[in-house]
Write a structure and sequence with these properties.
Blueprint: H1 5-8, H2 29-32, H3 37-41, H4 48-52, H5 54-70, H6 73-87, H7 99-105, H8 113-117, H9 129-137
InterPro entries: Ump1 (IPR008012)
Family: Belongs to the POMP/UMP1 family.
GO biological process, one term: proteasome assembly
């Protein structure tokens, strides 16, 4: 799969994406700011694209190194374990720490930015459970 591992973990949608007006909603200046075609076409910083694809590039490098050291079976086995871990998830409105994925990647002993400032209990917007489940099931 070429989409990257971070994008596959996003099964929930934010509450701001679904509104009472639906597709005909106007642009919300307070939440999204002013629209600009330039901002949509070009990244705001030269390192933005690199940072977005960091985990994918790191996984590719790790798989290539693992293949050179142990053979083709090792990265294939690890990719199968990644897929198995991604399939087992919580309901979309419940927070998941993805501990199994952190263990497979070796990030379980590291403390990063997202460990401290990504606490869902401190989130300003909590999604509506029924709407999020209907969206995941394709009913909405």
């Amino acid at each position: 799969n070429s989409r990257g591992t971070a994008s596959l973990l996003k099964d929930s949608i934010s509450f701001t994406d679904i509104s009472a007006f639906g597709l005909y909603e106007g642009h919300d200046l307070l939440r999204r700011g002013f629209t600009s075609v330039k901002n949509e076409l070009l990244p705001s910083h030269p390192l933005e694209l690199t940072e977005k694809s960091f985990q994918l590039n790191q996984d590719k490098t790790n798989f290539a190194t693992l293949r050179n050291v142990q053979g083709i079976h090792a990265p294939l086995k690890l990719q199968m374990e990644f897929r198995a871990v991604k399939q087992v998830q919580r309901l979309p409105f419940l927070h998941s720490s993805n501990m199994a994925m952190d263990i497979l990647r070796g990030n379980d002993e590291c403390i990063g930015f997202e460990d401290i400032l990504n606490d869902p209990s401190q989130s300003e917007v909590m999604g509506e459970p029924h709407i999020m489940m209907e969206h995941k099931l394709g009913l909405l």
